[in-house]
Amino acid sequence: MAAPTSVRVWAIAQTSTVIKWSYSGSNAVGIYRAAGAGYSLIDTVSAATKTFADTALTPGTLYSYKLSDDVGVTFSSVVTVKSHACSDTSARKKGFALPRFNKKQSFKAHNKAMRDIEDIIEKRVLTSTPCKACVTNNAIIIDCSLDCDCWEVEVDADINSITFLNCEGEEPCINFRIPPGVTRGICGFPQGHGGFFGFSGDECTQTPITGGTNGRTVTTGKQPPRSKPGSGKGSGGAGGSGCECIPGSKNQLTIKCCTADCSMSCSGSKSLQIKICGGAGPYSITGSAGLTFKKQGGTTVSSGITAGQTIIIAPPTNSGSAVAGTAYIQQFWRCVNCTSGACDNVNTTMHFDVGCDDVSDGCFNPADGHSHCSALNPGVGAVTSSAGGGIAPCLPEGTHSCPSNPGNTFSNTCDDRTAPMIAAGCNPCGVSASNKTFTVTDSQGVSVVTTLGA
């Protein structure tokens, strides 16, 4: 005889669980259950059957199952599951609660509306705090009556039972954090109860989640609330009210640059302010050689960065800012003549010659040999360097191919330093910052790489 293998179980409701297994034998399979001490045979199924739904259970109770194909002589491995707990609206801990009607279908829409109003008031007026759910006996409980932005679950064991209390058909945001170097199964979502997340039940073995080298975060449910009024605000200067970091739709790790195109503002501050949010703080930051990262007070920082904190990125040192000569050229042109869907410009290229101190000597139009500073030129510090790393080669003056969008201005930056200038320490921000990158990593190993503009 060969007992069934690959036995797994998950909860689907307060009074129901599902057991699934693999079996290649020809005997009937007996299903044994225990709630505490002592197993009892609860049913026998044919050899071809591989699934069994156990019903009429007690909510919030830990059950153990094992299977046998020889009338209890040998058994499969034991699996355990906790049935979903009961909802108890009388014990609501919510900071603000509106009245509910009974749970008949006719009042479902009204009760959902009450919940939506509560969410709006709590997110915009009351203070919300994160909530944590601990895995106990492979089960977690998500109580929507608590005042939570999003639930945090450290998946230190497989999960096969997920209870939702007082959620009234809503899909709460849950961040499942998988530790590094392990693989975890997550299943046991309610079925027939609002269709939470669209899970079918057997995800524990069919789609386990691997933490990898740095761990992994998986987010399910509705979009978490965005930053509350007043959060992420500065008191003047870059990084103030116009630079607020807002996490991704699933609380993804997000980097907010406080200048357009993540530009270093090389013609002015020669620095970039950023803010970090989402994911799992605190955060760490690294970057291309020569970049420095500091807090607003000037202290160098590489880790322990909190959400919404302003970080200042500075380019590599430029010891030769006083060296004479053109260090780099910034070229601009506009698509004008369009035929057959293709746009070309004729003799409208303009450029800046920029010194080692990142100061331009004025913009120049080679078509007529005169200086021009007009709306065509977006200005130093708003240059979009070409992709591919490093500084792009200078384009010849005159006609260049453009995408089919007449009127748009395009740009190119090229390094024009001579060997003696480089040897003398000429390392302007516009050259050293262009296409440099920095990487932000959260506490679960999730990373975002950002490319700098000059």
Q: What structural class is derived from the secondary structure elements?
A: mainly beta
Beta strand count: 30
**Main beta sheet: strand number and arrangement?**
5 strands, antiparallel
**Uncertain stretches:** 89-94, 224-241, 365-393
| End-to-end gap | 73 Å
Describe the structure.
By secondary structure, the protein is mainly beta. Among the domains are: 5-82, Immunoglobulin-like, CATH 2.60.40.10; 91-220, no CATH class; 326-432, no CATH class. It contains 4 helices and 30 strands. It has helices at residues 108-124, 203-206, 419-423, 429-432; strands at residues 5-11, 17-22, 29-34, 40-45, 51-54, 62-68, 79-82, 129-133, 139-143, 148-154, 161-165, 174-178, 183-184, 209-210, 216-220, 254-257, 272-277, 284-287, 292-295, 311-314, 326-334, 337-339, 342-345, 350-355, 360-365, 370-371, 400-402, 409-415, 437-441, 447-451. Strands 26-25-24-21-28 form a 5-stranded antiparallel beta sheet, with no helix packed on it. A 4-stranded antiparallel beta sheet has the order 4-3-6-7, with no helix packed on it. It is elongated.
List the helices and strands and how they pair.
Layout: E1 5-11, E2 17-22, E3 29-34, E4 40-45, E5 51-54, E6 62-68, E7 79-82, H1 108-124, E8 129-133, E9 139-143, E10 148-154, E11 161-165, E12 174-178, E13 183-184, H2 203-206, E14 209-210, E15 216-220, E16 254-257, E17 272-277, E18 284-287, E19 292-295, E20 311-314, E21 326-334, E22 337-339, E23 342-345, E24 350-355, E25 360-365, E26 370-371, E27 400-402, E28 409-415, H3 419-423, H4 429-432, E29 437-441, E30 447-451
Parallel strand pairs: 8-10, 9-11, 10-12
Antiparallel strand pairs: 1-2, 2-5, 3-4, 3-6, 6-7, 12-15, 13-14, 16-17, 17-20, 18-29, 19-20, 21-24, 21-28, 22-23, 23-27, 24-25, 25-26, 29-30
